[in-house]
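Need fresh eyes. Consider my entry:
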Amino acid sequence: MTVNTPQSGARESGARESGAHESGARRPPWERQEFKFWIGAMSVLALLTAVAAMGAIVMASSKADKTIVQAGSGTASGPQIDTAAEPDASFAARDPKAPAVPSGTVHRITLEATEEVLEIAPGVEQIMWTFGGEVPGPTIRGKVGDTFEFTLVNKGENAHSIDFHASKVAWNTEMRSIAPGESLVYRFEAKHAGIFMYHCGTPPVIHHIGNGMYGAIIVDPPTLGSVDHEFVMVQSELYTAPSGEVAGPEKMLAEDWNGVVFNGYVNQYLHRPIRVEPNERVRIWVLDAGPSENSSFHVIGTIFDTVYKEGEYLLVPNAGRGGSQALDLQPAQGGFVEFTFDVPGLYPFVTHKFASASKGSVGLFQAGEVATADGGAGH
């Protein structure tokens, strides 16, 4: 029988405390109270730092949003486009013919950045930002190995720049933004073939492209064959704004376009068909300038026997007798198709994404002597 005296209980208690201290001394660092304290303090500090960083990001985003809004005056919805409306009898569609290949190997070109009112659909005028006073900007052409020297002159009221996708130059030099009244020289050698986009690259880029600052440059493949007709179609979106304003970037970021068109005007070649003859060989260079919508270029009533996309032939005439029905392009992609019309008649061309075609990207080829619905004459 064991009797616990006060002294023996104290000794046992002391032994237990001593054992506890010894055990504490043997505990790993992460089980110690002081370690847990510092971990907790560091966690709180990290949380406070994250909150502060998030606040800074929100403030920066707010400032960026304000900058974007200030970049253009129009954020409200503009007039709706009536795709069934017809232009005046005096309306002249943009000439769709591709420019001839220039002679020589050095091409010096001046482009002026301007901001002016243009008609974009029957009865609808819009302030547009342009290269050369037109939308799209002028189509430029050359050959692989040619040198292009562009002088960009800013005659607008906003900062502008230019970015040639056909070039291999530093973004921070030739592509820099210039203030109103300034100019810059952009020089490059065309090292690759294709149809390339050029556009204003001043932030926000979507705002400048969406208001009209884009165009096409064709660099001929070395083995490009001859055809009877060459045309250029640049697909893009239209964003309208209230009178006296430009479309705002919020509308473009929301992909809330009012029209999808070829060469800058709603259904212009539906009213002014493009004239060719049966059995003539036709080549159409196509560029999707976006800034956001894709394209599925299709000509109703014929089949493409040649397809060239993004610098490569996908289809050429051969014993396999393959045919293509559409050229699919994402924004900033391009290529060409070749075909013939076997019999006289009218041949519509569209983007086969019909939600877009219904907003203004329908045209007509007139092969031979054919009466058009409105009696209009072809090009």
Q: What stands out?
A: Residues 17 and 222 are 93 Å apart (CA to CA).
